[in-house]
Amino acid sequence: MILVIMGVCGSGKTTVGEALSAKLKWSFRDADSFHSEENKQKMSKGQPLTDQDRYPWLCSIHDHMAVLIKNKESGIVTCSALKKEYRKILLIGSAAVKQHDDAISKGIHNTDVNKLTVQTDESKSSPITGSISSSATCEKYRKVVLPTEVSLPSPVKPENLIGQVLFIHLTGTEKLLTERLTLRKDHFMPASLLRSQLETLEEMDTTENGFTVSVDKPVDLLVQDIIMRLEPVLVQDS
Question: By its UniProt entry, which Gene3D superfamilies does this protein fall under (predicted)?
Fold first, then answer.
């Protein structure tokens, strides 16, 4: 099982992810380690990333999670995962790109991603079930049509991670998040990008596997709350 700790800058993704990793004894990777130097430089200048900047980054995170699942390892990854589209790419990786060229050449735009399907090798997918609502029983995985052509890294074979990844969305007021960002040292993400991320953010809907927690409490209590909510899934996964 993979936990993706998501949220805007300043929500404490790394702090919470590391604390959960220590409690659960699972591996941890921060999303920043998957960013290109170009992305980091752009953000350090206060420039928001475009979708074209984010797609290779998201696919790299997917590839890392796919390797963990293939090796039957649990892990924790941080990622802002601001849009539903981004979260879908995390689940199916570079497979999302394959239908892009055909769709664009046919003049298809704003396609309903829920209607785009592709056959997958079900023998390689072992969905995890639990009390949290999930699309884990899907027999096909859905593709995302990307709006413009992008260059993606050479990935491992894309895997269907639906049902094997759970998103934990860390939320807080803009005032609290701004205060946290102004206190943060030695990070390339400036506080000025918070407003852009809040405007981009799309909350999870009922079709997505995950839950939301507020960060207006000490980290130890926040981690305790998360682990309590994870218990049904952790038992199922053990």
Answer: P-loop containing nucleotide triphosphate hydrolases
